[in-house]
Amino acid sequence: MTNSPTFHDVHFSGLRSRVSELTWGQRWIWDEVQWFAPHHEHLNVPLIVDVPDGTTLPRVLAAVRTLVESRESLRTTYPLSGTGEPRQSVAARGGIRVEVRSAAGESRAVAEAFAAELRRVPFAVDELPFRVGVVADEGGPRHVVAVVFHMSADGWDIAHITAETERLLAAPATSSIPSAGDRLHPSDQAERERGAEGARTSERSIRYWEAQLARAPAVMLPAGAGVAGTPRFQEVVCESEAMAVAVQVLAQRLRVSETAIFLAVAALLLGRRADGPVCCFTVCCHNRIGPDEVAATGTFVQDVPVTIDVGDVTFAEAVRRTWRALLPAYAAGKYDPVRAAAVVEEAVRRRGSDVDLSCTLNVMLGANGDGPDLVGSAGAATRDVVQALRSRTRMSGKPGRDRDRFGRRFYLRAHNFSGAVLMSLRVDTLAMPVADAVSFLQSMEQTAVEALADTERTQGAGGPV
User: Fold this and answer.
1) Cβ atoms 243, 444 nearer than 8 A
2) pLDDT tens, position by position, 32-83
3) Could you give phi then psi for residue 400, rounded to 5 degrees?
4) Half-sphere exposure of 197 (CA within 13 A, CB side)
5) Could you read off the pLDDT of 347-374 as tens digits, one per residue?
6) DSSP letters along 158-225, please?
7) Which residues make beta-bridge pairs with 395?
């Protein structure tokens, strides 16, 4: 049961104002914004922060103001120039309207519904990329609810925004929050990318792209039944405790990251669908390497192609090849997207055939310590034990859509969630019917579980694969 909301304007002022080109990461997201416009609400990222008991509403509003003032990315709009090119424009001053909703005894449920409501509305390019509200009950504010436009924050930065909000709410007078001039902001990053250092970084990455494109198959996903579903792009979700245990144990045994294990499994299964032994997919790189980038605001995500020969190999060998392929791939994740697009066109012209980059994998397993705590479980996690966990695997679906990012036909995401691995796969039903997508996720889980038996003899062998 909720009462009528109230509204409060939070003003910020006295800060830097700048207009600059987009960063490479922003440009990568912008292409998706434009492709889906005006329905790009899937690029809205929600967060909910609990408010400590005894915190007053003025204190919450002060925390919101400090947060916005310390992060230029949260007060940046994306207007078009006179030639139609997008720009990022940082506001020195302005305001954000905060809606306060009351909830008697149902504050968490109201907060989750509030976040979902804010998320459903796509951001306009001339709108500040940060919507925020407060859920309160008779005892005062209980939750801060916000949605951030992906143009202005990636998953890494959302974690920073959440942590900073928590610190501000806990002790706003003493919280150690960087000021606007103490960290790297998107406009600073754009300037760096347009300089000599950025040119060298991009060219190294472009050379990597050229080498991968020369090896990439012309067809990764052969045509399916030739009949599209309605809507054409469908998404299935798998929540698997068995996958969480298997991936972590395999990572321990083979001494690589959980992400490398997951990508090796996906490469094996995708390789069976390609027109040759070489599998190719693009992997999302989060591109936060140096200390200044780790602490930076904004979005750094870009994708990069990876080619792996998975023909007639053991699981351990597939992991070894995947691990070796990922090291240069992640190093090549920073580049000028316009230049990369031109290189793809040139590769198609030279080969006289297509280059299939329609498969994208976005995997963050065990990141920031949010994976299941299974240290020491390798000895007990036999194939049979983990196979039994499959009875708790849950499959579900998400609303489909009529289109996906240009050229993308297969989009597999994975992250840790409540002791499980949450996998979601969105497919172009012309290439992969929904039933095949369900089967693919089930095969991902089964392949990882079966690999436990195949790799038991390698446990403790020493050294990464």
Assistant:
1) yes
2) 999 998 999 999 999 999 999 999 999 999 999 999 999 999 999 999 988 8
3) -85, 180
4) 5
5) 999 998 899 999 999 999 975 444 455 5
6) HHHHHHHHHHHHH-TTT-----TTSS--HHHHHHHHTSHHHHHHHHHHHHHHHHHHHHS-S-SS---S
7) 238
Q: What's the one-letter identity of residue 186?
A: P
Do 6-183 and 195-458 come out as alike in CATH topology? yes
Give the predicted TM-score (pTM) of the model: 0.90
Asked if 26 and 299 count as a contact pair (C-beta separation under 8 A), the reply is: yes
Using pLDDT thresholds of 50, 70 and 90, give the confidence band for residue 300. Answer: very high
Place of tokens 């501000």: 168
Q: Quote the CA–CA distance of 335 and 282 in Å, as a whole number.
A: 14
DSSP for 250-310 reads HHHHHTS-HHHHHHHHHHHHHHTTSSSSEEEEEEEE----SHHHHT--B---EEEEEEEE-
Show me where the domains of the chain are located: 6-183, 195-458
The CATH number for 6-183, chosen from 1.20.1260.10, 3.90.950.20, 2.40.40.20, 3.30.559.10, is 3.30.559.10
> Residue 176: pLDDT above 60?
no
The number of C-alpha atoms within 13 Å of 211 and in the hemisphere containing its C-beta is 12
User: To 10 degrees, what angle do helices 155-170 and 57-70 make?
Assistant: 140
The DSSP bridge partners found for residue 46 are 147
Superfamily name with CATH number, domain 195-458: Nonribosomal peptide synthetase, condensation domain (3.30.559.30)
- Report the C-alpha gap between 16 and 11 in whole angstroms: 15
Closest by Cα among 10, 331, 36, 12 to 144 = 10
Exposed/middle/buried for 413, CB within 10 Å: 0-12, 13-18, 19+? middle
Query: Which neighbouring-strand residues pair with 240?
Result: 421
Length of the chain: 465
* Secondary structure percentages of the chain, helix, strand, coil, to 5: 40, 25, 35
Res 84: pLDDT = 86
pLDDT, tens only, 319-331 = 999 999 999 999 9
On whether the CB atoms of residues 299 and 151 are closer than 8 A, the answer is: yes
| Whole-angstrom distance, CA of residue 66 vs CA of residue 64 | 6
